[in-house]
Amino acid sequence: MPWIQIKLNATNENAEAIGDMLMEETGALSVTFLDAKDTPVFEPQPGETRLWGDTDVLALYDAETDTALAVTQIQASGLVAKDFAYKVEQIEDKDWEREWMDNFHPMQFGERLWVCPSWRDIPDPSAVNVMLDPGLAFGTGTHPTTALCLEWLDGLDLTGKTVIDFGCGSGILAIAAVKLGAAKVVGIDIDPQALQATQDNAERNGIKDQIEVYLPQDQPEGLKADVVVANILAGPLRELSAVIKGLIKPQGALAMSGVLDTQAEDVANYYRDELVIDPIKEMKEWCRITGYKLS
Known about the structure:
GO terms for molecular function: protein-lysine N-methyltransferase activity. By secondary structure, the chain is of the alpha/beta class.
């Protein structure tokens, strides 16, 4: 069963009250507290800005939950600052995730593309190989949403194209696009740690100079691409539809994922005014929406 997690920063003094509020007012199915000092996934490198406070509060929700409403309820509680730091992300099934961590192996997507952990032999040296280990941010290819986007990218001719990875996370889609022939790739994410993860993973793949990364407020003015891929969630895909459509060149292609099968048609309708939408592709309750811009 798919899940969504909201992670937010707290202090030792207010974490418990925030946890109670998340359970009672926002419909969280469970709440977990983590000592930030024991959470290396968000530990900053020298010169980086840490996102979280002394205690990280993790609230788990059914994937159909309106997380925008939950965030609004958190803001209205008076327990957090108005501009509090938080992160919304998809969560893999826990049994599946444990199996992956214990037995992560090279995975093929489409005809040419492989994602390989560094400790395994590359099955096909002549293929397009992305080297990626468990790291700073979501996205290693095991989740259906990432797999759907990788499969789509593999089926495109990206030679000479400009690609935007909107919500780049680990950078797996941006790195795959470069290795599949894209001339220029731009990763955009609201999370500075995701930008760091993308750069680190690009460096491990020997292509750091071929990927640019930006926070949304810092991206170049008038930025547009031949191909845009956005593996985020249904809520942001609806709320940011005008922004995402504005990034696509005329006749350019778009792929979106992070959408449940019950949400896909509604999300697609936000894009039909400017795009021709393809048949929606489903994998294990998650969907990929693709299309191309008319003009």
